[in-house]
Design a protein that fits this description.
The structure holds 2 protein chains of 2 kinds. By secondary structure, chain A is an alpha+beta fold. Chain B has 16 helices and 22 strands. In chain B, the strands form 6 sheets. In chain B, strands 13-15-14-19-18 form a 5-stranded mixed β-barrel. The relative contact order of chain B is 0.10. Chains A and B meet through helix 4, strand 5, helix 5, helix 7 and helix 8 of A and strand 6, helix 10, strand 21, helix 13 and helix 14 of B.
Chain lengths: ~300, ~600
């Protein structure tokens, strides 16, 4: 079976204007939503208390709210979680005077109303911890970016490093844009997924770049555009199949992994889709913009060595 | 061309067999067990205890499947929870208060696996259920306390040396001593400088006063903070032992935080009560010069506290002793009148300070104050009858034997050197933990099957080889995680699934490359060779960028994210091995031996 039998190279680079404007528009939209709506940060970052409780019969949300109000928690967010038996209660930090003891008070008061309630999960995060996590997250993002630029610079050329990281940070911003638009909860796990996407989608650019470098050495008569078009066309089959396979795994997590893994898998899904697009249609035009040329790879003895291979 | 030397096949086989052995324990599951460990860290679990345990179990007609001495505890595995619970009661009754008898789970794997140190993966709290606390040590309070006790020592020294001073006060992170003239000040500075190397002294003139400002050297400050955290860690360990948890984790995190993990604990309220008991103890003198005026502020140099009956008491600010100096405290009875007492043993420094204080204050009252959440309460305020040396102190008077019991427990469990606050809590119930395992396992299984079907359909023989290589990757990853006993969390399970999804990339790259070479018209053997060779550089590059992301995640992630990062990094390493070496070995075995190969099955 072969899905991609492409005889002629597809002239991707001639669509440069179109693709650049598409990604510019999505990027700007993502930034717009990030600023207007903002991320719906989870309790990991904002601090606060989250309780997940389970009732043996369908839960009465109004009763839960009433109980919470009776102990002075007016702003608690009460909603079903996964099924009608499970309830998630979110209490913002500013209402919480009892600190870590709050969850015990809540369980006690819920228990008086209905004795069939069991505690599934509690998360309490104090304000200082949340601040540290935000700082550490930003630091990790910065370090990953610098590390990748540095490695690609070493392995290829600064132009490659720079275009790859711009293309992939563009993916990251778009993922964040999605989370802002839909107001999905942005937790620590999602942050981990975002950073994993950064590593993963750079990997995509690397495969294309490897081919571009190889083509510069082999196709001595071709223009830079032709070389890039050829590289993208030749690696396209692999790109689609690899991402398809990764997506099968991620899809399984998205639908079967439960609530905790759902948004993790969602961030990965968006990241995978956009990394295909960005490594082909963002990184490569950027490469031309930075003026990549055969001179960047003049290493005559190596070219000869390549050419005697069958 | 496509042949490996024999040693290479053997090496790969060896790695895979080792992988299999270390993965095996994960399939046997766990059995209920009872774990016996000494309450105090000074006591050791030894063969004598093992014999006692065995005898106690035998007397109760309980036959453990396994009874071993492991590290500083004794573990007994049972067939069912009935026997386990019975054994716990029996052992608790037989061994007495000095030992903690906790319920636990032990791997059911056969003995030869355990002898190879092959253990199942270590599951994080989000998978097995339990409580995770992050506690923050109040460093400012630790420093304040150090400054306060130094202020008292400065006063004593100046008094002993007959140097006149007009006041010692605490101002932020400084102790300010006032003198009337410069000569006295320089004399004082000399004396203090010799005795207190932890402080830096500076002169200052303020109106007619000559000031000496003492501030802690940065090194000393760090030392105080370090020892405060260490003391708190020790205290927490003692308190957790009281809870009877089988495998608690109590660790320092960063400069001023402590992580406490209690697997399997469901009663979080009790756990919090015992851990969060932010009690500190201080011994001070009762001020008898001033009388208490209700409602008014406490006179200068004193604090006002209530005792258990609600009477108000004035106590001097100067601290004689803190709870750190108490080595042991036991309830007892006075020989003379059979009244309940608390008998305290102090350490060397504590004994000396106590001796000095009692000598100077015979006939006066001394207060033992318990601080909880910044509020002090006088536990007892006995009269000093005589100088007490040797560090053995007996407190008696108006106590029931139950009160004596409680007070001594409080003293023994050790007070905290500085108050702590819970800044993070994560509790996962056991049912949710089991659900999480099931979900993580199921999604990995389904994803793997989907990838398998697709790869075989698309690349035929080479696809099948890729899937076997992917299976080898999973095997090696699980084996590595089991061997290292790295904590597996739910994000970690997601990491396993994700690395599998990403690892297939290497095989796709190779297979695509081989197809391309075949299309260029070279012979199958040469195409296989060129395919693997040309793809390798790309595989290396893309894995290194992934590894960079993984390492950064590990360095900056916390808790569950760290678990994800560990799996990601290990998965990248195992995938390099399996995708390149294992799959190549299989291709070589299938095709490499044929001299005339006209066609390969790659779709």
């Amino acid at each position: 079976m072969e899905l991609f039998k492409i005889k002629q190279d597809i002239p991707f680079m001639s669509y440069g204007k179109l693709t650049t404007s598409i990604s510019l528009v999505t990027f700007l939209l993502a930034v717009f939503f990030l600023f207007t709506k903002g991320l719906n940060f989870g309790v990991d970052f904002t601090g606060g208390t989250v309780l997940e409780v389970h009732y043996s019969k369908a839960a009465d949300l109004n009763q839960v709210r009433e109980r919470l109000t009776s102990i002075g928690l007016h702003d608690a967010l009460v909603q079903n979680f996964g099924s009608s038996h499970d309830v998630k209660i979110e209490i913002p930090l500013k209402q919480n005077k009892a600190g870590a003891k709050l969850s015990d008070q809540v369980m006690q008061t819920l228990h008086t109303a209905s004795s069939d309630v069991t505690l599934r999960r509690v998360e309490f995060v104090g304000p200082q911890v949340g601040k540290d996590l935000v700082e550490n997250g930003a630091m990790a993002l910065l370090l990953v970016s610098l590390g990748i630029v540095g490695y690609l610079w070493l392995r290829f050329e600064w132009k490659f490093g720079l275009s790859a990281i711009i293309a992939n940070l563009h993916d990251v911003v778009i993922i964040l844009g999605f989370f802002a638009f839909f107001q999905w909860e942005f937790s620590l796990t999602v942050l981990a997924a975002v950073l994993a996407v950064l590593g993963y989608s750079v990997n995509e650019s690397v495969v294309v770049f490897d081919r571009i470098r190889e083509n510069f050495r082999k196709m001595r008569q071709a223009t830079t555009e032709q070389i890039i078009d050829n590289a993208i066309t030749r690696t396209m089959s692999r790109t689609i199949i690899t991402h398809g396979c990764t997506q099968m795994m991620v899809g399984a997590m998205l639908f079967m992994g439960g609530e905790t893994l759902h948004y993790f898998a969602m961030a990965l899904t968006i990241g995978i889709l956009f990394s295909i697009y960005s490594s082909v249609l963002v990184a490569s035009p950027l490469l031309i913009m930075f003026g990549v040329s055969r001179e960047d790879f003049i290493k005559p003895e190596k070219v000869e060595a390549e050419e005697v291979l069958p | 061309m496509n042949r490996y030397p024999l040693w290479k096949y053997l090496f790969i086989l060896l790695v895979l067999v080792a992988g299999l052995i270390y993965t095996l324990p994960n399939f046997f599951g766990e059995s209920p067990a009872v774990q016996v460990s000494p309450l105090r860290s000074s006591m050791k679990a030894d063969t004598a205890l093992l014999d006692r345990t065995a005898a106690a179990l035998k007397a109760a007609n309980l036959a453990p499947e396994i009874l071993t001495l492991d590290g500083n505890s004794i573990k007994a595995r049972f067939a069912d929870t009935d026997q386990q619970l019975k054994a716990k009661d029996v052992l608790h009754a037989q061994l007495g208060e000095d030992y903690v008898v906790a319920l636990n789970l032990l791997p059911r794997s056969p003995r030869w696996l355990t002898d190879l140190h092959a253990l199942p993966m270590y599951l994080g709290l989000d998978l097995r259920g339990g409580v995770h606390f992050l506690l923050q040590v109040d460093m400012k309070a630790a420093l304040d306390k150090a400054l306060e006790s130094s202020s008292g020592e400065f006063r004593n020294t100046l008094r002993e040396q007959n140097i006149a001073y007009s006041g010692v006060t605490q101002d932020g992170k400084q102790i300010v001593i006032r003198f009337r003239d410069e000569a006295t000040r320089s004399k004082a500075q000399n004396e203090l400088h010799i005795r207190y190397a932890d402080y830096e002294f500076r002169n200052k003139q303020e109106g007619s006063d000559f000031l000496l400002q003492a501030s802690l050297l940065p090194v000393a400050e760090r030392k105080i903070q370090d020892s405060a955290v260490q003391q708190n860690l020790l205290t927490l360990r003692n308190r957790v032992n009281e809870l009877g948890v089988a495998e608690p984790v109590i660790q320092q995190q960063g400069a001023d935080r402590v992580v406490v993990q209690l697997p399997g604990v469901q009663d979080t309220a009790r756990a919090k009560d015992i851990l969060g008991r932010t009690a500190t103890l201080e011994v001070r003198m009762v001020d008898e010069e001033h009388s208490v005026t209700p409602g008014a502020a406490a006179p200068f140099g004193t604090d006002m506290f209530r005792d258990r009956e609600g009477n108000t008491l004035l106590v001097k600010k100067q601290v004689i002793l803190t709870g750190e100096r108490i080595n042991d405290a036991q309830p007892g009875f006075d020989n003379r009148n059979n009244e309940p007492t608390v008998n305290i043993a102090l350490d060397g420094i504590g004994a000396r300070k106590f001796k000095d204080a009692t000598r100077e204050n015979v006939g006066k009252r001394m207060a033992i104050i318990l601080f909880e959440k910044g509020r002090g309460e006088v536990v007892t305020a006995p009269v000093i009858r005589e100088e007490i040396g040797g560090g053995r102190v007996q407190i008696s008077g108006r106590m029931t034997s139950e009160e004596a019991q409680n007070t001594s427990l409080l003293l023994r469990a050790g007070a905290l050197a500085a108050p702590m606050e819970i800044v993070e809590e994560r509790t996962v119930g056991p049912s949710l933990g089991a659900d999480n395992i099931q979900r993580g396992f199921n999604s990995t299984k389904i994803g793997f099957i989907l990838i398998g079907i697709f790869m075989v359909a698309y690349y035929l023989m080479f696809g099948a080889i890729s899937v076997v290589a992917l299976g080898a990757n999973l095997l090696l990853l699980v084996a590595l995680l089991s061997m290292m006993q790295a904590t597996l969390t739910l994000p970690g399970m997601a990491g396993i699934a994700l690395t599998l999804g990403m690892a297939i990339d290497a095989n796709v790259l190779i297979n695509e490359r081989i197809r391309e070479e075949l299309r260029n018209g070279i012979t199958p053997q040469a195409a296989i060779h060129a395919g693997y060779d040309n793809a390798f550089a790309t595989i290396l590059d893309s894995n290194i960028t992934n590894l960079i992301a993984g390492i950064a995640l590990f360095a900056f992630g916390s808790g569950p994210v760290k678990g994800f990062a560990v799996v990601l990094c290990l998965g990248i390493l195992t995938s390099m091995f399996s995708a390149v070496l294992v799959s190549r070995a299989m291709v070589n075995l299938t095709y490499g031996r044929r001299a005339r190969l006209s066609k390969v099955s790659i779709g």
